[in-house]
Amino acid sequence: MQTARHPRRTRRRTRTALASGLLAGLLALSGCGAGDAGGTRSADSGKAAAPRERAASGASAGQVGQGAGSSSADGRKTGGLPAGVHVIRTTTLSVEVRDVPKAAAAARAAVAEAGGLVADERTERVDATRETSHIVLRVPQDAYETVLKDLAGTGKLLSRTSSAKDVTDQVVDVESRIASQRASVARVRKLMDRADALSDVVTLESELSSRQAALESLLAQQASLKDRTSLATITLDLSEPVTAPETNNDDPPGFLDALDNGWDAFLTVLRWGSVVLGATAPFLVTIVVLVVAGRLLLRRLRGRRAARTPVPPHSSPRPPAS
Questions:
Q1: Is the pTM of the predicted complex or chain greater than 0.90?
Q2: E strand segments, 185-275
Q3: Angle at which helices 198-230 and 168-194 pack, to 10 degrees?
Q4: Nearest-CA neighbor of 181 among 210, 211, 219?
Q5: What is the pLDDT of residues 4-18, one digit of tens each?
Q6: Are the C-beta atoms of 69 and 58 separated by less than 8 Å?
Q7: Which DSSP helix (H) or strand (E) runs through 29?
Q8: Which of 76, 197, 211, 235 has the most CB atoms around it within 10 Å of its CB?
Q9: Helix, strand, or coil (residue 116)
């Protein structure tokens, strides 16, 4: 009997120890994650301090954003910016060109040659002779300044608005949180492999699902930041000049000019006369009908009066006096 009870006690102690270990791991999970995140952020902030200082010195010298940034560790420039610095660049150009379709085709060709893409394009016709085009271009950082010069040189530059936002701290923070979250997900999965009780498995699965969702959200933020920092955005508005009709007032008007003007005046008078006649025709017809009817009525009344009046007898003529 003692030999049979000994394995049961051993199993109970093993399960109790395992459950205690799982609970202790769950309680320490959040603390470990926070400690790892703090350590990683402190290390990453220390690594990012030097690039931010270099970016600040470059900006004070007027070189950041102008294509004259510092070189990276291997001596190469990264989009005119120091290595490790992440900047979101946006520019809006308004250019007046002679031919909008040709200028738009040239802009698309310049962006394609630089390795960029056309994100959006809208072309509208203002009148019978003029067109406008609105194009949104995505250009790599290393070709940003070159493409801007090409686009501004296609015609008359009307306006230019540029902005640059340094998101280095945000990028470093997201990368640190991703590393910490991945380590947390890995720890939860290890605990799931060791769990035997159903309640522990359900609890760990819920925890894993929430941490996996947080990791996916951080990865989406990282992808968005990478897209906006690797490709600059250029909004190009193309328009054609308004041309007034050419008039030559140096030569005095001649006979043909006078004849042309007189014919135009004659046609104008006829046109307006027909308009007036058409507008007054119903009234004229009504007046004519009333006048004719009135005359006929008067004639009938006069005929009736003449028929009712008696005719006096004819008297014999007097003989002439002798």
A1: no
A2: 231-239
A3: 160
A4: 211
A5: 444 454 555 555 555
A6: yes
A7: helix 2-60
A8: 211
A9: coil
Kindly state the tokens that stand for 218: 């951080």
Q: How many alpha carbons fall within 13 Å on the CB side of residue 312?
A: 3
Ordered DSSP codes for 252-311: PP-HHHHHHHHHHHHHHHHHHHHHHHHHHHHHHHHHHHHHHHHHHHHHHHHHHHHHHSPP
Which pLDDT score, from 0 to 100, does residue 54 have?
A: 40
Q: Quick check: 25 pLDDT over 70?
A: no
What is the spatial distance between Cα 142 and Cα 13, in angstroms, rounded to a whole number?
Answer: 65
* 106-138 per-position pLDDT tens digit: 999 999 999 999 999 999 988 878 899 999 999
Q: Where are the beta strands (DSSP E) in the chain?
A: 87-96, 117-125, 131-140, 156-166, 231-239
Per-residue pLDDT of 236-282, as tens digits, reads 999 998 775 555 555 666 777 787 888 888 889 888 888 888 888 88
Amino acid letter, residue 306: A
